[in-house]
Amino acid sequence: MGVEEEFLLVDEEGAPRAVAAAVLQHASAQDGDDDPDRPGGALEKEFAEEQVETSTHPCTDLGDLLEQVRAGRWQADASARHAGARVAALATSPRTADPTVVLNRRAQDIAAVFAQTARDQLTSGCHVHVEVADDDEGVRVVDHLRRWNPVLLALSANSPFWHDEDSGYASFRSQIWGRWPTAGPTAPFGDAATYRETVDGLVASGTILDAGMVYFDARLSVRYPTVEVRVGDVCLDPADAVLLGALVRALAETALGPDTDLGPQPRTEALRVATWRAARSGLDGDLVSPLDGRPVPAGEAVAALVRHVTPALAAAGDLAWVHEHLAALLARGNGASQQRRWRHEGLGTADLVRRAVERTHA
């Protein structure tokens, strides 16, 4: 498994800074020891000049993954400092910003085609990759994840503020992101052939530029032999990103178990409602139950997910770690809860962003 994280580049007043090119240049000059044939590890550009993306190498151990997540954040921040900025794990900017699209032909084409949707995309996500043997195995994992993705979103929610206002959502990033024509939950595919036909049809429609713009909540990676789960906000705390990784891997292992019956699949309309509910209230209200579609307290939905994957977590040696870190997350709240708590304590926007920078590197 591996984790990709997108971050905001901010100045001392908490405003986004369009300095990604300088940050990446500095990072490239420092990066002389990494294996170029090993996936992950490098700092990369994002859609806007106010963002950068880190990625871990593939790994199997949660401790190793946490070390890599922390190292990626530290290295990104070190290069950002050379450009007069800091790295903040905020899924939306609390300050009003006018994003600057990177000087890249594909990004410029996307900006031209998608207009305001593209102009609003100063959003940062957390993407978890889990290895699969082939596309058919991957599609089984994608289909299995459908009912559980809203719970993953609620755990990661970290974007309550938008344009200097409280949006009322725990994850407003998911609302902005959902404007892309391919974003969100999907119907079950059943097999790799159906998945490929669906993607080919979306590209053939002329609406999206290429298969890289297939932004499903969970998809087959276009670069690696993995399932890529894209539903989450970037997490404020590094351990929360690792928790997502552990849960996604356990869901994948559960999906591929010989005794797993996917059973009747929920309708996509129901999943859209469950995803909206998770974005709205995060962990601070009811979620839609992944099991029967009824409202339940968020803690019950999370507990149902953990029960579902407990055998896989135990087999991987991850169960105790997940219980410990999940208890810590539920006690302090996700990123959205923490940001709102800081606001209620009286922090202004600049101080709130500075506090977020500190938590990013906790």
TrEMBL record:
<comment type="function">
    <text>ATP-dependent carboxylate-amine ligase which exhibits weak glutamate--cysteine ligase activity.</text>
</comment>
<dbReference type="GO" id="GO:0042398">
    <property type="term" value="P:modified amino acid biosynthetic process"/>
</dbReference>
<keyword id="KW-0067">ATP-binding</keyword>
<keyword id="KW-0547">Nucleotide-binding</keyword>
<keyword id="KW-0436">Ligase</keyword>
<dbReference type="InterPro" id="IPR011793">
    <property type="entry name" value="YbdK"/>
</dbReference>
<dbReference type="InterPro" id="IPR050141">
    <property type="entry name" value="GCL_type2/YbdK_subfam"/>
</dbReference>
<dbReference type="GO" id="GO:0005524">
    <property type="term" value="F:ATP binding"/>
</dbReference>
<dbReference type="InterPro" id="IPR006336">
    <property type="entry name" value="GCS2"/>
</dbReference>
<dbReference type="InterPro" id="IPR014746">
    <property type="entry name" value="Gln_synth/guanido_kin_cat_dom"/>
</dbReference>
<dbReference type="Pfam" id="PF04107">
    <property type="entry name" value="GCS2"/>
</dbReference>
<protein>
    <recommendedName>
        <fullName>Putative glutamate--cysteine ligase 2</fullName>
        <ecNumber>6.3.2.2</ecNumber>
    </recommendedName>
</protein>
<dbReference type="GO" id="GO:0004357">
    <property type="term" value="F:glutamate-cysteine ligase activity"/>
</dbReference>
<comment type="similarity">
    <text>Belongs to the glutamate--cysteine ligase type 2 family. YbdK subfamily.</text>
</comment>
